[in-house]
Amino acid sequence: MANAPDVGELTPPNRTLMGPGPSDVHPRVLKAMSTPLVGHLDPSFIDIMNDVQELMRYTFRTDNQWTIPVSGTGSASMEAAIGNLVEPGDTMLVPTNGYFGGRMESMAERAGGNVVHVDAPWGEPLDPVDVQEAFDEYQPDVFGFVHAETSTGVKQPNVSELTSIAHDHDALVVADTVTSLGGVELEVDDWGIDVAYSGPQKCLSCPPGASPLTLNDRAMDKVLSREHSPRSWYLDLSLLEGYWGEERAYHHTAPITNVYAIREALRLVAEEGIENRWDRHLEVASALKAGVEAMGLGLNPEDDYWLPSLNAVLVPDGVDAGEAISYVLEHYDLEIAGGLGALAGDIFRIGCMGYSAKPKNVSFLMTALGEALEAQGADVDVDAGFSAMREQLSR
Q1: Element (H, E) at 16
Q2: What is the domain range of residue 65?
């Protein structure tokens, strides 16, 4: 028999997280996670579950009864949405303008669906004209779009126009709100979104483990009237309905500590006020945007669909993005990330989310990134960047 491994005390580095997620966790959320466990069917935990659902409805801007934290990361809430809504033989329309449209495609195919595409270049939003043409050609049953594309820094405008097209064709709409929930304007009910999923580790500044999901009555009716059960037992919403609905019947052991965490994170949203929170993200990200542009760097998306919570900053000519990312991590304990897929090596992905969205973090980032770029001989004006950043913050 092997000897017991000699593993030391857990001492991860103290990073400042300004990549595409996770973001820095609020101290109150960390404190909530240290409170004692109770059982997942304890009366006190059922009260906590009720609180989470009420707070989540507020943050999603919805009255949907069926609003829950899925036990798992954001990809679990994504798969719960798509895997339950798409039945074998259904057609799902997915976008091609970013990495997470591809993940939608993969999940829909695994659910037995037929996938068709609405095309747009990486770094651009979907054009409603193209969406209309795709609906006229394919008549899909489900339409998925990414509200805030983490891989490109693009925010989808004209959401109500897209949902109207889908509903005119009697299709259900699934929105990826992983990088928008709690950070940029999102109106699930007013915009006609049938299903929205998200993750807690971005604009909510909460560790991953309990991921927001909301479905309206029309979507839930389809889930509950399926001819065949979804392929995942764990993510079967007709079974989870028994645990998160009025019955509160055992389905699985919920991640109790993560539910504590998301409750506190959502309390912080409510205390700040959702509109105020959107404004804070916009104000701080605008200072970041002004600073990097004055430094001599561009942003990948145009201003009309710039995503404040995730800034896709263009890598200057002659700069190795990976080296710059490693430099700021090694010298400043600051995490940013590079591009994915078609934008690999071309952009830095810089998050401005949740507890990380504050002026001192932007100032810190400007120092670290400017130094990393200068170390590679890039032609950047760090002083001009600081001046523009400060001017924006003083407005």
Answers
A1: strand 16-17
A2: 27-271
Asked whether residue 30 carries a pLDDT value surpassing 80, the answer given is yes
> Is the same domain home to 156 and 130?
yes
Where residue 158 sits, what CATH number does that domain have?
Answer: 3.40.640.10
Q: What pLDDT digit, counting tens, does each position of 81-123 carry?
A: 999 999 999 999 999 999 999 999 999 999 999 999 999 999 9
Local structure of residue 96 (DSSP, 8 states): -
Query: Is the pLDDT at 1 greater than 80, yes or no?
Result: no
Q: Which amino acid is at 96?
A: T
pLDDT tens across 226-247, in order?
999 999 999 999 999 889 988 8
Beta-bridge partners for 201: none
CA distance readout (Å), 182 to 25, 27, 216, 306, 384 = 14, 17, 19, 17, 31
Query: Looking only at Cα atoms, what is the longest distance across the chain?
Result: 67
Tallying the residues shown for the chain, one arrives at 395
What the block records as the tokens of 172 is: 């259900």
Q: With pLDDT > 70 as the criterion, what percentage of the chain qualifies?
A: 100
Q: Which residue has the tokens 């309390």?
A: 267
Cα–Cα distance for residue pair 191/193, rounded to 1 Å: 6
Number of domains in the chain: 2
22 cis-preceded (ω within 30 degrees of 0): yes
